[in-house]
Amino acid sequence: MSLEEALRRNPHLRAYIENVKRREGKIPQFMTSLSRDLKELAHPNLIYPVGDPIFIHISSDREGNRIYTAIEPQLTEKERESFEAITNKMLEYAPEERVPTSEEDMENLIEKLFRKVTGKGTGNKTFFSGSKISITDEQADKFLYLLKRDIIGTGPLEPLIRDTYIEDIHVIGSVNTHVVHKVFGMMKTNIDFGDDIALVEYLKNMGERIGRPVSEASPIVDGSLPDGSRINIIFSTDVSKKGPSFTIRKFSEVPLSITQLVAWGTLSAEEAAYLWLCLEYGMSIFVCGETASGKTTTLNSILPFIKPDSKIYTAEDTAEVLPPHEVWQQLLTRERGGEAGRVDLFDLLRAALRSRPNYIIVGEIRGKEGNIAFQAMQTGHPVLATFHAASVKKMIQRFTGDPINVPITFIDNLNVALIQQAVYRKGKFLRRCTSVEEIEGYYEEIGGVVTRTVFQWDPVTDRHVFRGLNNSYILENKIAQTAGYEDPREIYNELELRARIIEEMIARNILGYFEVNNIIRAFYKKGLEGLPFTI
Predict the structure, then answer these.
(1) Where exactly are the structural domains of the chain?
(2) Which of 78, 89, 75 is nearest to 141 (CA)?
(3) Do the strands 416-425 and 312-316 form a parallel or antiparallel pair, or are they unpaired?
(4) CA gap 119, 121 in Å, rounded
(5) What is the mean pLDDT of residues 325-339?
(6) Nearest 10 degrees: Cα torsion 509, 513, 515, 520
């Protein structure tokens, strides 16, 4: 889309840009996509589309604070009167219509009722059949957008939900909305809910829509939006002193690929190759780290390494894990229905043990379900999971303490712990795999668990050092033996080969998730002959 085309289709965008030009003497640069290099701009001034009629303006104030402005159609006072009259008339006609059973049905019903009241339709089509509320074509487009936004969409949050460059949304009170942008970091937005009363109503409606009602009796709620984004609501002003608040962790329908993470430096090609071998040969891996360290992103990126014909079983509170396998049983917990109807992760993992999957994946282990996860590993079911712990030592302490209470002698059922952190280096926030630890075993004579660091991130050079070369317990004593190597150290040649495949994909700019997944599948099927390039 060009700027000229965007202006032609969206008069509100033209008016906004003209206002910016009058105020600042220059117009923002129009961009259809953003690169990470833009984060270096001291004073960005750019506009990008997130789907008609919404555009985003990234700018900065004199102090260099970046500002996120959502540009969407706005009602004048006179238009507000017409909009309310049309809405009321549509509500009068609505009981005569069939109850919609899907989002598509609801959208069709809105358009039908709107035509009935105004004689206008989408694409500036005019229908005549008696007395109508008179509006212009431009107003028709504006009104229809706002009706759909508020009834089907997410209301004032719609621009933020549509923007694929946003990672997190933080709302504290009705006029304090910030976003974490993938390129520009934390920014204040112009999103305004009006007042706390309006925000309370918004959150009540949101809670009903996601099946997790909020109230003074249940003021804290976790759930998922229709697009899969994760929401945490703190409803009561007794609990949230600055007003009702909520946080949304945006969901991406297409996960980031392992080659993209390697290209960004989150981990190295050797680390990725190591994880590839571990998953091919059924090792259990926990991705550990603190909040917002990128645990789920890394977990999703490595799932294509599991053999394509594997049966996958996922258990989660909210749907975030996306294995690309055909045989995938996806189960979610259920909070509603009272005590008898409640299904938690503990229940799901017990069911998993009866399903005989090749891999059990737990979105996030928090409590007693961790004990079942270790029982699953004890019975030969490999487990992948994310877990809040900043080091392998803290991970073991949490698993062996309340409320999980895994016997310390069981810890070696877990093979690998990947530790990931959000680090601040040279003025930039980065996500880095700071170490990969192997769990060798519990030794009674020392009264503890022996671990080995196979990879360690060096913050000075920003490199991932392979400390486990010719010294990996998992590669030599687990994988090499299963693979039938006479000399266990030959496994390092295989690791080097996988690392070269990953590096070649990056060199050829093969960074898309599905492209990478297809190449890994082809390698599993035909070996090196299946690759679209020569190694």
Answers:
(1) 258-530
(2) 75
(3) unpaired
(4) 7
(5) 83
(6) 110
Single-letter residue type at 205: N
> How distant is the alpha carbon of residue 176 from its chain centre?
22
Q: Is 53 helix (H, G, I), strand (E, B) or coil?
A: coil
Q: Give the DSSP letter string of 156-199.
A: GGHHHHH-TTEEEEEEESTT-EEEEETTTEEEEE----SSHHHH
Strands 220-224 and 185-189: unpaired
Helix-strand-coil split of the chain, %, nearest 5? 40, 25, 35
What backbone torsions phi and psi does residue 167 show, to the nearest 5 degrees?
-95, -50
What is the percentage of the chain residues whose pLDDT exceeds 90? 77
Q: Which of 8-12, 123-127, 367-371 has the highest mean pLDDT?
A: 8-12
Q: Are residues 246 and 231 in contact, defined by beta-carbon separation less than 8 angstroms? A: yes
From the CB of residue 531, how many other CB atoms can be counted at a distance below 10 Å?
A: 16
Name the one residue in this structure whose structure tokens are 């050092």: 465
- Please give the DSSP secondary-structure letter assigned to residue 285: E
Look at phi and psi of residue 458 and say left if phi exceeds 0, alpha if psi is from -120 to 50, else beta: beta
Q: Could you tell me which of 189, 322, 310, 181 has the C-alpha nearest to residue 255?
A: 322
Q: In angstroms, rounded to a whole number, what is the distance separating the alpha carbons of residues 1 and 492?
A: 49
Q: Which residues pair with 230 in a beta bridge?
A: 224, 249
List Cβ neighbours of 423 (8 Å cut-off, separation of 6 or more): 429, 430, 431, 432, 434, 459
3-class state of residue 462 by DSSP: coil
- Fold classification of 258-530 (topology level): Rossmann fold (3.40.50)
pLDDT digits (tens, 9 = 90+) for 394-439: 999 999 999 999 999 999 999 999 999 999 888 778 999 999 999 9
DSSP helix/strand/coil, 365: strand
Structure tokens at 52: 């008609």
Q: How far is CA 290 from CA 68, 194, 219, 295, 411, in A?
A: 27, 34, 25, 8, 21
pTM of the model: 0.82
φ, ψ of residue 475 to 5 degrees: the values are -65, -45
pLDDT digits (tens, 9 = 90+) for 181-202: 999 999 999 999 999 999 999 9
Look at the block and give the residue holding tokens 């509500």.
91
Distance CA 463, CA 181 (A): 25
pLDDT of residue 341: 77
